[in-house]
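Exercise 7.
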Amino acid sequence: MRVALAADHGGFRLKEEIISFLKENNIPFHDFGTHSEEAVDYPDFALKVAEAVASGQFQRGIICCGTGIGVAIAANKVPGVRAALCHDTFSARASREHNDANVLTMGQRVIGPGLAREIVRVWLSAEFAGGRHARRVAKIAEIEKKYSRCGGKPGEGAPAPACRGEGNGRA
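Solution. The predicted structure, written as C-alpha cells, is:
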C-alpha cells in the first residue's frame, strides 16, 4: 500500500507526526506538502492527494488541516474519492469497513499526535467489509456519476449539459 499525504499550514505538525509513524512502520508514502507552517490554501493540497488516490497511483491518502473539515470537503469533490473526517478510532475503522474510505482527514487543532497515530494505524489496517456495504458504496458512485459535470468517465454516455455548454449560461 502506498499513501499520499498532505497538509496545509494548520495541519503541518500533525502531518509530520504521521510521517514519523509511517516511517516507523515501513509504510511507503509521498509527502505532497506543505513543508512549513507558512500560510497556504488547503484546497491546493487536498487536491494533490485526492487526484493521486483517484488516479490509482496511491491506494490511500491522508490530509490534515486545522479541523480536517475543509480538506475533506475539497477532496470529496474529486470523483472516486471517499474522504472521511475521523477524530476517533471507531469512526476510522467504520469509514474503511463500511464506506471504503480511501482518504482520511484529521484536524491538528482537534486531536493530539498520540490519538492521530492510533487513528492512522486503525484506518490503514482496516479492510472494506463488502457485502451490503458494497451496494451502498456503489450507490454513492452512482450519485457521483449523476452529478459529475461531465457525466462520469469518458465513454460512459452523453456528457452532462454543463459539459455541452448548456444549463447555467456558462460554457
